[in-house]
Amino acid sequence: MPPTSIPAGARRGRPGYDQATVLKIAVEAFTEFGYDATSMGMLAERLGISKSAIYHHVPSKVEILRLALDTALTPLEAVFDAPGAHSGPAVERLRFVIRSTVVALFDRRPYVTLLLRLRGNTEVELAAMQRRRQLDRRVAELVKAAQDEGSLRADLEPGPVARFLFGTVNSLTEWYRPEGRFSQREAEQTIIAMLFDGLLPRR
């Protein structure tokens, strides 16, 4: 799935470069140095082009950030629109949402990593953080529904449970390495097993 597009008139093309390349390099720089500390000049140097050439692909630094955060959030939000999030027992819908979130994170890992490091210093960041909070609320609603049906223990507050579930999934951005010994599938299976089945041996 390609990154969310900006108006075609804002990107007229440049030999050897495209919007996706500019976005990829920008996300790497934003994550390494922070959005505020990354200048368009730094991005131009990393790309090996002039600063003015960047504007053939994106109109501004803030638009790069908006595009990057949309690229992270849109597939995470789409998880809740999938059929598996609306059919069956609440606990199975919750399991589907968490598993699909892991898959989306792997697919958009650099962008999700940037999302998780936001400081809320701009309107674009604040809007993205609000969208993240909405995801937390939707997971909390599923947790509450699963508690009501007796599938999850009812002595825990749904809000903190939702944040713990997402926090565990988000930890993949810190410790998972594609070149490591664990495949994405193995990491996904381990996280789902721990979150829903725990660490105690089955009897």
Question: How would you characterize this protein structure?
Answer:
The longest helix has 26 residues, at 123-148. The model is unreliable at 5-15 (pLDDT under 50). Helix content is 63%, strand content 0%. With 203 residues, it is mostly helical. Helix 1 packs across helix 2 (40-47) and helix 5 (90-107) packs parallel to helix 8. The chain has 2 domains: 8-64, Orthogonal Bundle (Arc Repressor Mutant, subunit A); 69-197, Tetracycline Repressor, domain 2, CATH 1.10.357.10. The chain has helices at residues 19-33, 40-47, 51-54, 61-78, 90-107, 109-116, 123-148, 158-170, 172-175, 184-197. The protein starts with 18 loop residues before the first helix and ends in a 6-residue tail after the last helix. It has 10 helices and no strands. The radius of gyration is 19 Å and the shape is elongated.
Helices and strands, with pairings:
Elements: H1 19-33, H2 40-47, H3 51-54, H4 61-78, H5 90-107, H6 109-116, H7 123-148, H8 158-170, H9 172-175, H10 184-197
